[in-house]
Amino acid sequence: FAEAIQVVRGKAGLYPETKAPEVYGSRGFDMEKLLLAELKKARLDTPNADPKTPLIIQSFSPASLRKLAFDLKTKLPLVLLVSNGEEKEWLTPAGLKEARKFASGIGPAKGLIEANPQLVQWAHEAGLTVTPYTFRVGLSGKYKDVREEMRHFLFTYNVDALFTDNPDQFPRQ
Fold first, then answer.
1. What is the mean pLDDT of residues 121-129?
2. Does pTM surpass 0.85?
3. Quick check: 157 and 117 in contact, CB under 8 A?
């Protein structure tokens, strides 16, 4: 991770993810503490520490984000990722208000927004940003191409950002 920071720093932002922290925690790894320690070494452990290298931490684990926010007291932006699986309880007005207690945004699978576009409005009303995932060539569904799909999400659904494997196709208006 330290090498990735060195390569990216000043050229792009970083969006690290705590992956399966419950699994690694049971093996003696404190993923959240290790992540914040590495960010502190790189002097990226506070919001806007390096304007040319914005940083947001993401996780599918609410427990991981709660630990970062409450136990480790990070002020860095935290995003709760939500898949098409079991976590749908977060995608209600009440669930989003609860998520806002420990996160500054949500990152839902794009299909969740397609199924319920009102989710974006609910999240914004709760004070959360919305960054759906993952937009890529060949998986644009009913849209002509990935650029059209991203445009629709950005300018019709009003998401704040999006994850894409094809940044060269990002729509400009």
1. 98
2. yes
3. yes
